[in-house]
Amino acid sequence: xxxxxxxxxxxxxxxxxxxxxxxxxxxxxxxxxxxxxxxxxxxxxxxxxxxxxxxxxxxxxxxxxxxxxxxxxxxxxxxxxxxxxxxxxxxxxxxxxxxxxxxxxxxxxxxxxxxxxxxxxxxxxxxxxxxxxxxxxxxxxxxxxxxxxxxxxxxxxxxxxxxxxxxxxxxxxxxxxxxxxxxxxxxxxxxxxxxxxxxxxxxxxxxxxxxxxxxxxxxxxxxxxxxxxxxxxxxxxxxxxxxxxxxxxxxxxxxxxxxxxxxxxxxxxxxxxxxxxxxxxxxxxxxxxxxxxxxxxxxxxxxxxxxxxxxxxxxxxxxxxxxxxxxxxxxxxxxxxxxxxxxx
Length: 344
Hints:
Elements: H1 6-10, H2 26-31, H3 37-48, E1 55-62, E2 66-67, H4 71-78, E3 83-87, E4 93-94, E5 99-106, H5 107-110, H6 114-138, E6 142-145, H7 156-166, E7 170-171, H8 174-180, H9 190-196, H10 199-209, E8 216-219, H11 226-237, E9 241-246, H12 257-269, E10 276-280, H13 285-294, E11 298-301, H14 303-306, E12 313-320, E13 323-324, E14 341-342
Parallel strand pairs: 6-7, 6-11, 8-9, 9-10, 10-11
Antiparallel strand pairs: 1-5, 1-12, 2-4, 3-5, 3-14, 12-13
């Protein structure tokens, strides 16, 4: 049931089973339960004035430039409504105040979804923008997004999809990968080595049970010096070893360009030049550039993307029943963008 009035809200009862998690399910989003209540109050007032079905043009713009993401969910929410929906392509760059979305139709068809629509665009566009900054820093190197652990599990798949749109080469979240039609990528956590008690002991079993096509990446900073462990693992796995992973904690100085260079030099000196270096742990664009220059081949990036601020999105009514209109400070009428494409 879609919420249409304040009376509908009074009738909503949440059972004890539904109180266990505060995250919204699909039906709760579609029904309008995740919107701001004042949009429902607005509809009650406009209905009393016989204005609820006014034909409007609403446009959405952003307050800073970035990479556009999230329109896929907006489309799903609005696809059965009697409206026209226009938007720029996901993954495209936009400038401040570019028109990113235009909705035309009866106000009653989409009014209660304004908060929902803006939320579907604001956070994903922020994540996609951060992901694009990482991609530019990586240059011709690849990176995977490792941000799931930093977000509520209901939101993490949305974040990793946005990061993929923004330029991540792979995702670690299982649900995200499956919905995108790609296989999720991951290495091994420190927990596995700590439980096994020895890096080489675990690496041997890892090598034995993985299929031939799997790219074996072994974490080498759990117990011993990174160079020592890298050489031990490379000696044991040989050509099966795709990469070693450096994730040295901040308590030991983190992963530095000097450490990457040292590991690279020792691997090459011992003839293991095919072994790549995968780096993770608190990475950001500037650090990635320095690590890449030192010899790092690929990266795992988490909090820089998952912690990116949402890009503030604003929806303005620009026309009512054929008459251009706007709030003070804004120009009445449509703001054209040649990159808008009709989705509905």
